[in-house]
Amino acid sequence: MAQLVLGLGSSHGPTIQSEPEEWAKLGRKDTRDRRFDYEALLRDARPGLEDELKPELQQTRHEANQAGLKKLSGIMDEANLDVIVVVSNPHRTWADDNQPVFSIFRGNVLPIPDPNGPKRDPDKVYLPEGDANPKRDVLERPGEAALANHLIRTLIEDGFDVGCTTRLRPGSALDEAFTLLYERFTPDGKIPMVPFMLSRYLPNQATSSRCYALGKALGEGIRSWPENKRVGIMASGGLSHQIIDEELDRGVIDALIERDEARLSSLDVPRLNRAGGTPEILNWVTVAGAMDPIGMTLVDYIPCYRSPAGTGHGVTFGYWR
């Protein structure tokens, strides 16, 4: 039988991909973000947030981000994985697409954008001109259809209705929610990946209790796979962003460390959806369920502010083993 030997949790996104002098560009983007009222955030911001934007502090936090990534990369190398399940959320969806709450990519070939191609420019997201997501060549990385199909069957037998697909739209590729694995942890791309896609969007967003229960079933499904393989599972994304909520983040981190299933299963839906990226916390809840009864070891939590309104990213790194 397969062994579930490692759980990982890592933030992704432009904060960890950018030098700190670029964070101001991300802050300018936030002033135009239609998902929240920037002026209201600015008006109600806590005193002293300007101090969070000092270049020397941002540089320190940038270095902590890179150290966290390096630490997790080393832990993953030590685990000698044969395959990894990445739990995350497709970021770029189309209104006419079917968007299941839970879905598994079960192809043996994974399309990913060429990491050496032109980079996404988040400052162009809300501008009428320019493309925030320039066209990039699509490369291929290995999937693991056998594990994917096994998980689909075991999850359905456990009462979870799971969608599946073997391909994306022509010319499309998995986004950074999943390609973080290749960009920062396995640049040679040799470890097969099973993308587990969890919707972060309302109205088709699972509750945290459902995600924890799903995680338990997912862990059991991995362990029942009749292959002598070392398997890892990874939560990609989170914690709070584009509005930093340190109180929420620290509460979630404590619950992950303390194996507090009740707290992880009762996260407030409106609070999770105060900012577009914060529901990625559900990825961590799912992995916590899969790794139960092991608690998470925190590598670091770095609140990376990028505007006086309190926007930014609660960058977090942790592992279960």
Radius of gyration: 19 Å
Largest sheet: 9 strands, mixed
What is the element string, with H for helices and E for strands? Answer: EHHHHEEEEHEHEHEEHHHHEE
Shape: globular
Which percent range fits the helix content? 25-40%
Head-to-tail CA distance between termini: 18 Å
CATH class: Alpha Beta
- Name of the CATH homologous superfamily: LigB-like
CATH topology-level name: Protocatechuate 4,5-dioxygenase, Chain B
What amount of the residues lies in strands? 15-25%
Q: In CATH terms, what is the architecture?
A: 3-Layer(aba) Sandwich
The structural domain count equals: 1
Low-confidence stretches: none
Treating each run of at least 4 consecutive H or I residues as one helix, how many helices?
Answer: 11
- Total number of β-strand segments? 11
> Which structural category fits the helices and strands?
alpha/beta
On the 0-100 scale, what is the average pLDDT?
91
